Please model this.
Amino acid sequence: MSVCEIQGLTRDYGSGRGVFDLSFAIDQGEVFGFLGPNGAGKTTTIRHLMGFLKPESGYCTIDGKDCWKNRVDIQKTLGYIPGEMVFFDDMTGTEFLSFMAKYRKADSNGRTKELLDRFELDPRSKLRKMSKGMKQKVGIVTAFMHDPEVLILDEPTSGLDPLMQSRFIDLVLEEKARGKTILMSSHMFEEVERTCDRVAIIKNGRLEAMDDVETLKAALSRKYVVTLENDDAAAAFAGEGLRVFEVSHNQVTVIVQNNIKDLISVMNRYPVVNIAAPNQNLEEIFLQYYGGSGRS
Model:
């Protein structure tokens, strides 16, 4: 059952900026990765889901409620981490968390303490004096403290050190096991690979690809490292017209896309010692869609 649905969503800012005829749905209990560089349309999409923007055409729903018409109700119940943290700077972290609990009319004391302990956060400081990492932790606690069924997370680990990033991944996996529905926009490819069931790649405001992580990997180019008996054999092998990524001594790394038979044919004529297929991460996949670079 779809908990979050976007259908034909369009907002045109001009000069090719915005989102255009965007459609996808997120099922209950699914962690959905939403990838794209700055300017691709991720945050614009998320702002429509949050009810901060009214669609020019199309619609967004969460739990069957229109995200624009029912934005007040939706904002009170879901968990949200914005891409840019904005707080009442005169408040302490403690005062802000208390304010958010009252706004949501939720008793979250036990859950809040658990999250503060997990992320080693003392919220008694003034928000304006907190580092970016500390503010990010406040944002994470705010998003999760009322135990929401749906979470929308925009670059949730920005500013966190590797230990806290790992703890956040563990938290998402725990929530996933509890059946929570999560949309996560991220540049941290490791956290997407480890947590997400499916991934959507957005390019220039349009949906470029959407599938489970393993299927996306399989559909694109793969690297193979071919080890030969000696350097001379490797140099000759590299001159056979294959798409060569790198030659290092007696190893040749080739890129293959729908032409594995050509690689096998060439290998049959050379003294090959070993062939390996390194794991391809989402960053490599992402860069393939963007021709090696993203938009700023």
Summary: The CA atoms of residues 26 and 144 lie 19 Å apart. Residues 162-177 form the longest helix (16 residues). The mean pLDDT is 91. The longest strand covers residues 2-14.
